[in-house]
Structure formats: C-alpha cells, structure tokens
Amino acid sequence: MLHPKDHRTNSRVSLLALWFFPLVTVLPTWLTAQTRPTSHALLIGIDHYAPPSGSSLPVAGPGHASDSRFAPGASWHSLQGPLTDVAAMHVLLRETYGFTDIRELTDLQATRQGILDAINQLIADTEKGDRVVIYYSGHGSQRLDIKSSKKDQRDQTIVPVDAWKGVKDIRDKELAVLFNKIVFDKRARLTAIYDSCNSGTMARGVTESVQRKLPYDDDDVAKEPGAVLESDLKRIPQQGDAIILAAAGPTQSAVEATYPEDGLVHGAFTRALIRVLRQNSQALSAEDVVSAVASMLHADPLDFQQPSVEGRVQESLFGDPVTSHELHVRVEKVTSGKITLDMGSAAGFDVGTEFTSIKPSEDGSKTILAVTSIDGPTASTATVRSGPVHVTAGQIFETSKMVYPQAARLVVFLPKPAQLPSAAAIANAKALFPLFTWVDDPTVTPINYLVAEGFKGWVAYGQDGRTVKAGRGEKGVAFLLLGPPSSVVDRIRATEPFKRDAFQFTENLAVANYILTMRSRPDGSPEYALFDPRVLAAHKVDDYVRSKENDPTEADLNGGQNPEVVCRNDLSFPVRTAWLHDSSAAATEDSIAPVIARRILRLGKLRVWQQIPSMVSGVTDWPYHLAIVRDNASATDPLHPNEKYDVRLVTTADQLARRAVSPKYIYLFGFDCAANPYQVYPTEETNGIAQGPPLGADGTFPTTYNLISESVTEPFGADTLFLLATKEKINNLSLLTYDGVIESRSRGSGLDQLMADLNDAGSRGASSVVTSWQVQQVVVPSRP
Fold it and tell me: How confident is the model at residue 215 (pLDDT cuts 50, 70, 90)?
C-alpha cells in the first residue's frame, strides 16, 4: 500500500488513466450551430433477437458444430438495454456535442440490409471535414473464416435483428470497407463505438447481468462468393482519421444490467462511457476516456470487461476541444406545480440536483428548481425550490448543484443467522451434499459451489448460476457459508453506518457485492470474513495475491499480528478480507460487530469514490494528469516489493499553451487492496501546504512536476490512488481518510460531513461534494 514512507503505484503509467474531469461540459446545439462542422450520427440498437413464438431456426440439425448458433438447442436470447442506450447516446451527442443530424435505427428496422443501407446513406450525405459517429448496441458474435490470420480463425460481427432467419451477420471486414469510404474517400472524421461482445477487434449484460453475445456462425466466410477477406483490406480506418471504441476484448463478453439510478437496463460500457463524457471537456483524449471508463467498470458490481480504443487515440472522440459549459435542461410542461424537464438519468444526475434559470426575472432574481424524481433517460420532475414560482414550457435552466446517483451503496449477502454452530451441526449440514469436497477457505482452493442456508433450507450456488438443492448427487468442491449469530447481526444493525443506509443486507446472492460469513477456529471460537462473490468464478490459484493486512484494529483482534488478506491485481477490492476474531477471554459482539461494520463501510466508500466521475464545476485551467514513473520505465508487470517510483503531474506544452494555468492545492490519497484508506501527499505535518505546480524561473509552468518518490509495501494487490486538485486548502487532512461515525450519532460539518456521508443514502451519496475539487484516479497493481 501507499503510506507517506512506503507507497505503491501503477506500473502501467502510459496505459492506466486517471480521471481529469470538469463537472459537466455541455455545449447545447443552439450555442454551436454556427461554429461546428456538420455532424452526423447513426445510432443502432437492437433489443429483440429471439425468434417469434412458433418460429423455428431455418438451419438446424446435423452438420453444425455443437457450439454454433444453428446447432440444436442454441440460445437466441433478447436484450433489454440497447434502446435505452441509444436514447442516452442521442441526448449526449445532441446536448453535449452539438450534433445536428442524428439518425436512429432500432429493432425491426435494424436488419442486415437496413443497417448497410443506413451506413451507405450516411456516406452519401457526408462531406469533407464532417464529423461522423456510428454507434451500435446489441449482440456481438463471430463467424468462421478459415482464411483469417487470427489463431481462432473467426471474424468479429454485429448481429442484425433478422439473423435468426439465417441472414448473415455484418463482419468487421465488411464494416472496414464502408468506414474507409468515410475516412479516405470523403476525408471525414469517424468515431465508431461498439457496445457488444467480441468487439475488441471491431474497427453487448445492478442486478444479475446478461451477456450481449450470441453463439458464433460456423458457416465459413471463404465459401461465400465475393466476401471481403483479410487480403482485400489494403488499409483499415484506424490508419486514417478514425477512432474505434470497443466495449470488450476480442474474446470477452459485454454485459447489460438494471441500474438503480432509474431502474432501467443499461449496457455497462455505454453507461460508463456516457458518465465519463458527461463529466469531461472534449480535451480529454480517446485513450484517457477509455481508461476512465475502465476505472468505472472496475467499480461496477458486474464482471469486468476491458474496453479498448484504436486509431487516433491521442485526439478527442468528437472533434476539437471546447469550453466547459454547465448542463442545460428545458422545461417541457408545468402541471399543478410539477415541472417536467427534458433530461433524466441519461444526463447522470439524481434526485436533489438543482437547476437555476438562465434568464432572471424583472427584479433580478432567478428561479431554482430541485429534482424530485427521475422518470427515465430523458425525463425528470422538479419543483420550485426558491425564487419566482412562475415557470413556463421552453424555459432554459442550468445546473447549479449536481447530485450523482447513489449506485455504490454496498450490498452484503447474509446467510441465515443462527447461534454459534457446533461441530456436529456443521457436519450435518455438509452431509446434505454427500458428494461435495469441502474447503474452509475458497481462496485457497478454487471451488464449484457456495453452500448456504436460506429461509427455505440449504442450497448450493454453482458457477453456472444454477442452484442445487440438498440431497442431489452433484460432485465438486464447495465452501459452507455460515450465517453469523443473530446477536452479531443485530449488533451490526445497531451501528451508525447501517442505520444511515451506508450498506444493506440481502438474501439474494445475485445482487450482492460481498458475502458475510463465519467459520469455526480449531478451538471452536468463531471468526468472520467478507468474500467477493467472484470467488465462485473459475480462476487459477495464482490469480490471487496473498499478503498481510495493514490495519492496527484488525491486528489487535489477531493477537497483535497483521492478518492475511487476499486480493487481485485487476480489481481494487479484496477477494477476501481478513478473518476477524476476538481472542480475549471476554469476547463479545461489541468487539467484533463495529469492526465488521467499519470494514463494510470502507469497501463501500471505495466504491463511492470510484463511481464519482468528477467533483469540479467550470474549472478549465488544470491541464495536468497524474503519472506514476518507475525506475524501469519500460516495465509493464505489477510493481514489486520495495520498488521505487515517482508520483508526478504531467502535461504537454500544447495543453499549457491553451490554458491560463493557476496553481492548485494538491492532495494524494488512496485505498489499498483491502480498502484501507491512507494519505500520501502532503504529509499532515505540512498542514496542506501543497500548492503547485510552481512557476519556473522563466515564468512558465513545467510540463512535469514530481510530487513524491516512494516504494511498494504490503498489502499487495490492486490499490486505487486519488488525486484532488482544489482551489481551497483542506485544513484537516485526516478527513480524507476519515471512517465516518461508527458508534455515535454526533456529526460534524463541512468536509467532515462530506466524508462521513459519502455512503449515506439519506444524502444520496456524494450529494454535498465540494464543487471546486477536481479528481483523478488510477488503479495500481503490485505483487510479492
């Protein structure tokens, strides 16, 4: 972890990004129509893939590979999020980037021929210098191509709505030919975005997720007369003025899920992309956008998918940089005091967000609206909070207080609470699944099942999502989830974090971020730990990073010794927290429950910080990015124990030339892989005197500024570092790593209140975020 004398950092500085976000950068169409090049967008979204009821696949039976889409029993499942994604992208392009020509092709319109015709029409309408965006949300797949140079001999595809009829997918090579006409023939700027599975080489899903993937087509491309093959492509769009953005790697699944901000299904990638773009200036490069999206996907409770970008990755996605603007909304109608706005969840705000009228009344006062409900991606309801109450349809308001969705509250699976189980009771539970092999820690040996007692009896949860009832003759390795005693659970519920909804318990394993369980020590005393449900996923033992925890309170419970924590290098959350027990003779719930609650609170706080896209309003004079520089600059592996590195602020001469830069107060803090917070820079002794970067002797700001030099220590795994750049000094630095109120009802104020309430659903998450902060983050891997 990173402490003032023994920090860790990221080994992939040039690839792992940081967040560099002005709060909301929206350039309405009416501000840009005279200054922007013509902009075209084609947004394709497909929800319905399953054959109509009573229909059958045209090609089925012998002759197809067993994993082919046309093999007997192949699944053709529909999706729920693409149309919502299209609506959100439409709002983003229109309101944030001033696009004037936005075309939608959805569901039954999006046949193979419909998609090709729409792209060709877009090409015909494009002129030199225009901006063109093609966005696809739906199933991705593959098609056999034995002439491909790739090892698996499969082309990546997007799946049209009529694919179930036997109509062929649209392959990446076919799209490349069309995209080349935009880039090279029309000499226009192209941005192509795919939210689909297997999209990593393309030049789709917080409930249980659904994959945006269909089985592949085993009909070889080479047998198709006139098919575009690899040898036909003399150049690809990425070699011209093009940026190709993909939701997942070539062999990965992109997913969609229901998210709490609006109760609708969104593609995980599209949701993250829109949140990042909503909170950034266009000066952010495509490479930085993808890295920021990856950081947000790491914080998502779904399985991680690695987005990628190709082409002109150092340029912005949609054109030249523009000045930051606040989010503008318009009044659609006013009924009995309820005001309907034309923005909703697609704009990334939540209940409590406030908007101020642009035009003042005759006496100079302005109306302030407060959002009372989110009604959909492009609709919300507000009431007058203060100022003149007369509001009319068409009136324009701009954001004055942003409340982000509280999507990061930790949800903990709680097996059925009981009394401390005896050895006989544990043996009886295991006997219900006689063919299982049992382990006492699923991070030591990979498992096939998690077995827990619900309120309807014992059940085993399998890797494939199936549940197995007791007595079934299933074989595999299993771990027994024992619910903590009711006395411990009641004591946790009595803590302030639980009473203030900083986290919640659930009986549904599918929606849980963590699992709270208990096991018996050799002396019969209980110990408790939290497990990430991903422990059930197939993995290799060396995927996990085992090292010593670094928390004095938990060490005290472990006889003065630092207990073991189990982490990973690709996720900033522990696979298993330290096993907690009280070895004292007078052990009670009072010694264990508050520590468990604090651990849950810290895990949740890390999720909150990771899901806050930005906390700055209108600040455009800060061009610096956080960079971690190793002694071995070419190294790409995780950092090693005691390895030295520098933490720097870096920018370019071009970025400096575009801005009137002013120094900021700079603060660097982080969470280690066990979610313990720590402060890196400046030290508390300096009382926050950390303004920078300094002016050079020639009166200019440097392109590189070294903050601190440090090294790597335990615990090893994936840390998350946060950089704050602020206009105002933070007087009490300890508040950045403050745990909040655990056992008392007393509360502070100002920054104290902010930090204590980061997980407080009553305040809707980070609702009182200081608006003059600018936040960047980076994930930092290390191994012993």
Answer: low
